[in-house]
Amino acid sequence: MQRLQFLRTPSRPHGFRANLAPRILSVTPVDEPEVLARRKRAQRNEEVRLFVLSFTAFFVAITSFIW
Length: 67
Description:
The protein is mainly α. Helix content is 64%, strand content 0%. It has a domain at 32-67.
């Protein structure tokens, strides 16, 4: 049974996890409306940023070919 030493019980957690702060171990609930709204807003901002970047790149490429 020497190879099962890595298995831990809740009363004896892994050494690395025991040293972590409780706020790090807490999981952010995904179902909360604030979390979903923040994620949707971040995704929308990323889409707008990529659109502006691609539009600018296309505009620069076309104008450089015309000149």
